[in-house]
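sorry for the late reply, my laptop died twice this morning and i had to redo everyting from scratch. anyway the thing you sent over, i finally got around to it. pasting the sequence first so we're on the same page, its 415 residues, then the predicted structure underneath. double check i copied it right bc i was rushing
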Amino acid sequence: MRITLLSLGSRGDVQPLLGFGLGLAAAGNDVRVAAFPRFERQVTDAGLEFAPLAEGRISRGATAADRRVAQRGSHQTPALVALVKDAHSVLGQRLADALSACEGAEVIVTNELALLLGWQASEHSGAQLVRARLCPPPRVAQNPAAPAVRQTAWLAMRRWLAAARRAAGLPPLSWREPVGQLAARGTLELRAYSPAVVPDSASLSASTQVTGYWFLENDVDPEPPQELAQFLEAGPPPVCVGFGSMIDADPQGMSELAVEALRRAGQRGVLIRGAQGFDKAQLPDSVHAVGAISHDWLFERCSAVVHHGGAGTTATALKAGVPSVIVPHMIDQVAWGRTIHALGAGPAPIRRRKLSPERLHEAIAAAVTDVKIRERAAALGGRIRAEDGIKCAVGVFEKHMQQIAGPSALELSNG
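ok and here's the structure:
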């Protein structure tokens, strides 16, 4: 079966779909992964075909001015609006790229950020659409007014899409928003998180399955530097601090804040440099800075992880069985911060705009000294490591496709 996986977003959005893609390929399918150009090597090194999707300037953090626009006080709505406008600037090319990437595909698997692209490609080609969720649906989705909210948002997006669709030779879109239609059609939705973390399976439909996390087992990162290994061996497990692909208007100030919080908490630290941060700080001997590093490898060697609450980073910290101190910047990160705290696997989250050395110091101290938090994080890690989310997802996917194909295909697959 020819399958295209569409993934917009950062590494934490792409890597789980890459893991699922490898599972589908191992089951005998022909798999292509479409993502931003910076992920080409990661995909091809894993042995899958790659197709590019146009990326906006702000999401790459091109300049200091772009970073200020994206962050803008770290309030969720301004940051989200800035990123949506940035995506709009490349909408035509991105749609053309998605149609090209999905050409010849029998099935299109899309993450939530790429859902609109995947749906349009599916409607155009007739390929089956599968939704991949890395996070639970937002609370607003449970509200009776949600269909009206979606319809209002759809009318705005429909205007944005009109020119891009005309350029691609596609007909005008329906006035009805598509998400409700997908649910009514029984479109398969795979939720790539652990039922131990979000136990909502009792309320799900037959076409919606919680599979467990999709961890990429292939090592796509460089070998850990010798200096880091020596630092880890020279003392007790440090606290890891890193905010992934989050764009910060003042990376130097963030670096200094983290170092001061670690000093007050009496903890050694490892700072993971993002695209802009942590590289100019004057670090004490108790803090070590690294660039690209395997989170799987590093987190299990740390006493706690301070991070932004992205779905991928949160999943890896949970798998490692260490407490998380979440500093959400926007969107789903806020929900993950609440979830981790509610599970007892970390202290209360600290919103980025409220972050201070004192608040971060208190949260780090709780994460490394509170016995209940540490025990709960360790227990969750054990449950998650015992799951095989990719195997489960591939099995659900195959069963769903056999049911769509009909009894003859099912008999053939059974020999």
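The chain has 17 helices and twelve strands.
thats about all i looked at so far, will dig more tmrw
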